[in-house]
Amino acid sequence: MHQTFDAALEINLLHANQQGADHNREHFDQWGITCFNIMSSPGAGKTVLLEKTLSHLSQELKIAVIEGDMTTELDADRLRLYGVPVIAINTGRSCHLDSKMVAGGIHQLAHQYNPSEFDLVLVENVGNLVCPAEFEVGEHAKIALLSVTEGEDKPLKYPIMFQQADCLLITKIDLAPYLDTDIERIKNNVRQMNPHVTIIPISAKTGEGLNVWFDWVRAQIHQSLVISH
After folding, report:
1. What global pTM score does this model have?
2. Is the Amino-acid biosynthesis keyword given for this protein (predicted)?
């Protein structure tokens, strides 16, 4: 059976992207950097999560951010206030970052700083619940966010991101009492897609769950250091 032209093109694009992602990861491993790819639909709370993470962890970890957005540097400017390097990437009409775009960010980072001094690179992907999960960028872990305002059925309707995630943050849980949303049902739906994913409910507003997230970040960095040695 012959593949359609579109199917063959998609396979070729994903293969080329994977080669680039593997190359990016080689750079991160060489420098001793752990990289997270942070993904969600628009408005789920990626940028505020990064703000909380930088505020809490940037004193003990050397962190840089690669910030993906379609047209602006609004989120990048927010994160620059925390005194960490932020490389902004505008994707234009593309609904996700790919490994080539992130390679450009890596080269900028390496040109401006000594990359071996960094412990963690946080890649904030474009807000989209589908495309970012299909294009690796060289990350060591994929972090997906799902807010309680999006409903319980999203893991079933948009399975790829949840199947790919190493950690899922259920965000805005302080709003759950005001919504007809069952957090346990969200967890169960996610487990159907990915039985082994770490699930952490959080509220950036109240701080609930954030320490669990920070500990998970620390554990991933420690694990990467053990593997590299």
Report:
1. 0.92
2. no
CB of 70 within 8 A of CB of 159? no
In DSSP notation, 151-214 reads -TTHHHHSHHHHHH-SEEEEE-GGGGGGTT--HHHHHHHHHHH-TT-EEEE--TTT-TTHHHHH
Taken in order 37, 17, 194, 145, is the CA torsion positive or negative?
A: positive
d(CA 55, CA 1): 55
Phi-psi region of 56 (alpha: psi -120 to 50; beta: other; left: phi over 0): alpha
Q: pLDDT tens across 99-137, in order?
A: 999 999 999 999 999 999 999 999 999 999 999 999 999
pLDDT digits (tens, 9 = 90+) for 128-150: 999 999 999 999 999 999 999 99
Q: What backbone phi and psi angles, to 5 degrees, belong to 166?
A: -90, -30
